[in-house]
Structures are given as structure tokens and as C-alpha cells.
Specification:
- This protein is α/β, with parallel strands linked by helices.
- The protein has a domain of 220 residues: P-loop containing nucleotide triphosphate hydrolases (Rossmann fold, 3-Layer(aba) Sandwich), CATH 3.40.50.300.
- It is built from 18 helices and 16 strands.
- The strands form 4 sheets. It has a 6-stranded antiparallel sheet with strand order 2-1-4-5-6-7. It has a 6-stranded mixed sheet with strand order 8-13-14-3-15-16, with helices on both faces.
- 25% of the residues are buried.
Length: 743
């Protein structure tokens, strides 16, 4: 048998936190493992990669739930992916399973934590619908009967007759025809709408077409008025253009003269501003800084001079009394000097009268007393020669300081004079700036007046151009020759009221032409021609639409015929297969699908026990006949018939027989059976395994099971286990090991 499905790879998908690949080399492959090991996640991986969009079908609420959630041993993933590989080699006739020119086709789907999905075909990103269309061509899909779980097997028994028929139609591959029919019906409906729109447009056009026809007949009646308008308009436009051009040139000259004068005043203003600007301010600042510096120096030098004078006085006094000494052999001048210094310090303290000064004086007196005591030990001058040298030294120093004081005073007077001069220059520059600014405001006013006049002239020019366009629209392109019209002598100096009078006469003539229907004869004729052509086009379009509607009706009828034929033919084959499978499973008896009597949608709802008034609007237009499918079941050695009397095990066997029968009419390349044998006893399991082997002759099977009999029908086994880290792992197992692993 040709194997179409080569492998499936799960990476970060659900419990498969690590990359896991299953390679299929036999027509029947079994996947076994204990409950909770994640083996059913393989089936959901198939659903996922084949395009399933229902999170409920994959036992999840959102896309993020499909991604490995993490464990202490393996951090959570940011994406989950599943990849399936198909053998797409051509058969003997050259036909490929998938309609794509590759011998191997890899379909991959990736989901990210933000819910975004990515689809890849042989590594190239594609759209979901591209994947679905490619797989649908090979009867492969992510839902329906490609992947059958235990719950889905029983769903067909619990379904309503209408739902059951839809399932059978899906299994028979009739969805493609039904989609084509629905598409054709949609196109037919759109065509009907377009037919009505086209008819409506023709009805709307008819009155306007008649009106235009009457207008065209009146066109010739306005020729004389158009000629008169052309003559008057040409003269008016020539005069207006000449006056506007002349006035614009005059105003432009005035504006240029004002602008030139403004530039000159601006230069002068900048010069005046420079005099009192940053450079003047900088010079004044420098002079002020110099003044403060000189005043500080003068204050310091005066203090220095006073100190030297005091020292000189003390030295001179000491010189006069050099020969007088006290009892302790202390030179009299030294004693007098000490007394004088202490007396002066105390006098200063008395004048100050604050605590801080008194504290400072007390400290100073202490220092002087300490110095006096030190003098007693021999440090103070004791000879006539030492005192004289001190007097000479202090006299020379005092003279030098007085000279420096005189020089600083002179510099200070010069700085003050410079400041006064700088201020005067700044005041003069400011007066000049004020005068220049006043003159500039006057010139700017004149310049603004010129600009305003030119703006008004621009409005006249705009009106003039609009009048030219209107003239072309009313009279025709020949009005563009207005500039060739002669301008009478003195026309430019006449009163503007005369030109305004000519304009009013032209406006009155325009109104007459418009009222006569001659506003634009060429445009009316053109519109009449276009409207007539449009009406003829709509007539042809209507014929084409009606022909298209007929063709669509034929297509719909043919599709309905094909669907009906394929449905009844397929139902016949399903019942034949169902008879065979049912007899194998139950050892006799029979089961059959049969078509109910056609009923309308409202009757179907009432028969289903639904409230007739519920969602009434949804069914008002759904009145077509519809025949659902019912199931007739008769078990061997039992007189009671019907689904409602079947036990749980009997229902499971009936579901399996019906599902397998449906897959035999239009066999898919492969089937995924997820624990569909879970409810079977040992005897029925053997029968189920025989059916599996029979199915394996037409479709490749991947069976997820706990059942030993089912395992024995498989050509290869894969075991799925889960350790403490919560990660599903794959094991290749022998048949003897499979039963133990499955338990």
C-alpha cells in the first residue's frame, strides 16, 4: 500500500515540551501509553497542523494553552509547533496526492503566546486558506472524519436527522459541490440585484435623456447672443488686463522703493544698536569692574598708609625717649609704645560698643601684653641706632604708599570719567535708534499699504481669470483671443466705474444665455451623447446579466443534480459497508441509514422540539424542503429496534460501524483513531481489530489505543510516557511491552 503520511513532529506543543518525531513506516501504526501521558495530544497535534480553528476541539480555551507551559525541569516555551511530512511522489499515472510539484510536502503550523499563528509550506510562509485548499484537494482536513475520537464517534448517533445528513455529506466529499452551489446562488442573487439596479438606472436616465434631447434642439437659438457676448467680453477682458498690469507695475515699483529704504534704515538701526548694544554694554561693564577694583585698591592702600603712619609715630616717640628706662631695665620708648597701643585698642573698643568687637580687642590686648613680656626678655629694640633705622624705614615706606595712593586716585578719576562718557554715548545711540524706528514704522505703513493694494489687485486678477474661464465655458475657446483686441487711446486713465458698467452688462447677457439653455452648448451636446451611450450600454448590460442569471440557474440545477446523485449513490455504498461492519461486530442484525420524508425548515424545528417563535427572523426565508437522515438498527436475537434501546456498549459498536462505513465510500489518505475502542470488551475488541486491518487496506491508520487486540493489528508501535518533569516522551516498544506501558 502507498503510504502518504511519513511523519509528524511536535515541538513545544502541549505536553511535548521537547522536539518529538513519529515516523510512520507501516499502514497501521499504534500509539500507546497510560492515561495522562499525552498520547491524545498527538491526535490534537494532527488537528492543529491540518488547520483546526476550534480551541474546544483541541481541549483548550486559547492559543496560549497549546504551548508547553513549563515545569521545574524545563522552562515554558514561547511557541508551539507541529510539522507533518507527506510523501507526494507521483503514482504510475503521474498523479500526486497533493496538487503541488514537490515529491515531499511539509506542512507546519506554529502558535505564539500572543495568539498569533504562522503557517509554512515547505518552509515558505503561506495563508491558512492556502493550506486548507491544498489539503482539501486530497480529501484531508483538520476536522470531520479525518481525525475520530471516542466522543466524535458517538456524536453521529446523538445528532438530529439534519445534522446527521450534513455529516454524511461531509464524509462523501459533497462540501465542495455545496460550496460551489452556495457560491452560484450568491452570484445569482447578486446578479438579480444588479439586474434590478440596471433597470432602475435606465428608468432614472430616461427623463434626463429626454430633457437633454430638448436642450440640444434649443442650442442653435443662442448663436447670436453668444457672438454678442464674445465681442463685449473680449473688449472687457483686454481693458481689464491692461489696467491690472499697469497698476500692478506701479505698486511693485513703490514697494521696491519702500523696501530699499527699509533696508537702509535697518542698517543704520543695527549700527546704532551696536553702539548701545553688547559692545557698549560690555565696555560699561568693564569700566564698572575697573572702578570697583580701583576703589577697593584705594581703600586698601589708605588703610596701609594709616598703619604705617601709626607705626612711624610710635617709632619717632621711641626715638625721643631712648635714654629713659624703667626699673626693670626696660627701655622707656618701648614702655611708651606698649602703653600707646593698648590705649588705642581700648579706645576703639569703647567706640564700637558691641560684644564681638570687645572680644576681638581683648584678644588683641592679650597679644600685645605677650609681645611686651617678650620684649622684656630682650626682643624689643634697646639702642638709639635700632630706633633710628626703624624711623627711616617707615618714613620711606610711607612715602611709597602715598605715591601709590595718588596714582590709584588718578586712575579712579579717569574710570569715572570713562563711565560718564560711555553713558552719554549710549544715550545718543538710543535717541538715534528711536528716531530710526519711528521712520521705519512710517515706511512699513507705506509698504503695508502697497502690499494691501497688491493683494486687492491679486483678487481682481483672480476674478479676471475666473471671468476668462467662464467666458471659455460659455462662448468657447475662441474667447482666449481677447488679448488681440485693440485698446482705445486713454482707456487706462478712464474712470473705473465705466469698466464696472461693462462687467454688469456682460453678466446680464450671461444670464440670458443660461436661461435660454445655451450656457454651454458643446457640453450639453456632449452630455446628451454620453447619456444616450450609457443608456445603450445599460441595455446591453441588462441582456448580459439576464443571460448570466440563466446560466447560473443551469449551473445550480446541475450541481443540485450532481449532489443528489452523489449523495444517494454514496448513501447506498455507506449502507453496504455498514451492513458488513455491523454484522461483523454484532454477529448478525442490520443497520441502515435512510432518508426521511422532506420537511420544511419550520417543521424540522418543531420536530426537534424547538420553540417556533425562537429566532423567528432567522427562519422566515428558510422555507425550502429538507430531508434528514435517520438510522434503523436491529440487533440479532432481539425484537426491539431503534437507537434508544441500545446499551452503552451497543451504541459504541454501532457508532464505530457507522463511522468506518462512512470512511470507506470516499477514503481519506489517512485516518487518526483516538481511543475509539475504549468501550469495547475483549470479544468486540477482536472484531474491531479485524475492521482496523480491513480499513488499513484503503487508508493509512494511526491508532491511539489501550487495547491489546488493536495493538496486534498494528505494524509498528509507539509508546508515550510522562516523567516527573511533565514532558511527554516517545518510546519504541515491542508488543509485549506495549500492554504494560498502556496500563
Amino acid at each position: 500500500m502507498f503510504l502518504s503520511l511519513k511523519s509528524i513532529e511536535l515541538s513545544g506543543f502541549k505536553s511535548f515540551g521537547k522536539k518529538t518525531e513519529l515516523v510512520f513506516t507501516s499502514p497501521i501504526a499504534a500509539i500507546v501509553g497510560p492515561n495522562g501521558s499525552g498520547k491524545s495530544n498527538v491526535a490534537e497535534g494532527f488537528r492543529f497542523v491540518l488547520g483546526e480553528q476550534s480551541m474546544k476541539s483541541m481541549r483548550s480555551k486559547k492559543g496560549e494553552d497549546l504551548i508547553w507551559g513549563g515545569s521545574p525541569g524545563l522552562p515554558r516555551g514561547n511557541r508551539g509547533g507541529v510539522k507533518v511530512t507527506f510523501d507526494n511522489s507521483p503514482d504510475r499515472s503521474g498523479k500526486r496526492l497533493l496538487d503541488i510539484d514537490f515529491n515531499e510536502v511539509v506542512v507546519e503550523r506554529i502558535v505564539y503566546r500572543d495568539g498569533q499563528n504562522e503557517y509554512l509550506l515547505n518552509g515558505t510562509q503561506v495563508r491558512l486558506k492556502d493550506v486548507i485548499r491544498l489539503l482539501a484537494g486530497a480529501n484531508i482536513g483538520g476536522s470531520g472524519y479525518q481525525i475520530i475520537s471516542q466522543g466524535e464517534a458517538d456524536r453521529i448517533l446523538n445528532a438530529s436527522p439534519r445534522e446527521r445528513r450534513e455529516m454524511v455529506e461531509d464524509a462523501l466529499g459533497l462540501k465542495l459541490y455545496q460550496h460551489k452551489k452556495a457560491e452560484s446562488e450568491r452570484k445569482l442573487e447578486e446578479t438579480g440585484v444588479n439586474i434590478e439596479k440596471t433597470k432602475s438606472l435606465r428608468r432614472e436616465i430616461a427623463p434626463h435623456l429626454n430633457f437633454l434631447r430638448n436642450q440640444v434642439e434649443k442650442i442653435e437659438k443662442g448663436r447670436e447672443m453668444k457672438e454678442e457676448l464674445a465681442a463685449k467680453l473680449s473688449e472687457y477682458l483686454a481693458r481689464e488686463n491692461a489696467w491690472i498690469s499697469q497698476e500692478d507695475a506701479r505698486l511693485l515699483d513703490d514697494a521696491r522703493a519702500h523696501e530699499q529704504e527699509m533696508k537702509q534704515l535697518t542698517v543704520r538701526l543695527q549700527e546704532a544698536s551696536g553702539k548701545r548694544g553688547e559692545s557698549g554694554a560690555s565696555r560699561a561693564k568693564d569700566l564698572q569692574n575697573t572702578l570697583r577694583s580701583l576703589e577697593a585698591k584705594l581703600s586698601d592702600i589708605r588703610k596701609r598708609r594709616e598703619e604705617i603712619a601709626r607705626e612711624l609715630g610710635r617709632a619717632e616717640g621711641a626715638l625721643e625717649a631712648t635714654n629713659v628706662t624703667v626699673e626693670a631695665i626696660v627701655p622707656v620708648p618701648h614702655v611708651r609704645q606698649f602703653v600707646r597701643e593698648v590705649d588705642e585698642a581700648l579706645s576703639d573698643a569703647e567706640r564700637a560698643g558691641d560684644i564681638s568687637t570687645l572680644q576681638r580687642v581683648i584678644g588683641d590686648v592679650r597679644s600685645r601684653i605677650r609681645a611686651f613680656v617678650e620684649g622684656l626678655s630682650g626682643t624689643a629694640p634697646a639702642t638709639n641706632e635700632e630706633v633710628r633705622k626703624d624711623v627711616e624705614r617707615l618714613s620711606a615706606t610711607l612715602k611709597t604708599v602715598e605715591q601709590e595712593e595718588a596714582r590709584i586716585a588718578t586712575d579712579l578719576d579717569m574710570a569715572r570719567a570713562g563711565i560718564a562718557e560711555s553713558r552719554e554715548q549710549s544715550f545718543a545711540a538710543e535717541r538715534e535708534s528711536v528716531e530710526l524706528q519711528s521712520k521705519m514704522r512710517e515706511i512699513r505703513t507705506q509698504l503695508d499699504a502697497s502690499h494691501t493694494a497688491r493683494s486687492q489687485l491679486a483678487s481682481l486678477r483672480q476674478r479676471f481669470e475666473e471671468e476668462v474661464r467662464e467666458g471659455v465655458a460659455l462662448v468657447g475657446a475662441e474667447i482666449r483671443n481677447w488679448h488681440d483686441a485693440a485698446i482705445p487711446h486713454g482707456a487706462l486713465s478712464e474712470d473705473r466705474n465705466m469698466q464696472e458698467k461693462r462687467r454688469r452688462e456682460i453678466e446680464r447677457l450671461k444670464i440670458k444665455i443660461e436661461e435660454s439653455g445655451m450656457g454651454n452648448g458643446d457640453a450639453v451636446v456632449k452630455e446628451f451623447s454620453q447619456t444616450r451611450e450609457r443608456d445603450e450600454f445599460l441595455s446591453r448590460e441588462l441582456a448580459d446579466l439576464e443571460a448570466s442569471a440563466g446560466s447560473l440557474k443551469d449551473i445550480i440545477a446541475e450541481l443540485e443534480k450532481t449532489i443528489d446523485m452523489r449523495f444517494h449513490d454514496g448513501l447506498k455504498h455507506i449502507n453496504e459497508a455498514l451492513k458488513n461492519f455491523f454484522a461483523k461486530l454484532f454477529g448478525g442484525g442490520h443497520a441502515k441509514l435512510f432518508v426521511e420524508e422532506p420537511r420544511r425548515a419550520r417543521e424540522v424545528r418543531r420536530g426537534a422540539g424547538l420553540d417556533e417563535d425562537e429566532d423567528e427572523e432567522d427562519f422566515e426565508e428558510e422555507q425550502e424542503l429538507y430531508a434528514g437522515l435517520s438510522i434503523d438498527v436491529s440487533l440479532p436475537r432481539k425484537k426491539i429496534r431503534g437507537l434508544e434501546v441500545l446499551s452503552g456498549g451497543e451504541r459504541a459498536l454501532t457508532s464505530i460501524a457507522l463511522i468506518f462505513s462512512m470512511t470507506q465510500v470516499n477514503p481519506p489518505p489517512f485516518l487518526i483513531l483516538d481511543e475509539t475502542d475504549a468501550a469495547l470488551d475483549e470479544a468486540n475488541s477482536k472484531r474491531y481489530a479485524d475492521m482496523i486491518q480491513e480499513l488499513g487496506g484503503k487508508s493509512q491508520l494511526i491508532v491511539i489505543t489501550h487495547n491489546r487486540a488493536t495493538m496486534s493489528a498494528a505494524g509498528e508501535l509507539y509508546g508515550v510516557t510522562m516523567g516527573q518533569d511533565g514532558v511527554s516522551k516517545l518510546l519504541s516498544v515491542k508488543l509485549e511491552e506495549a500492554e504494560r506501558v498502556a496500563k
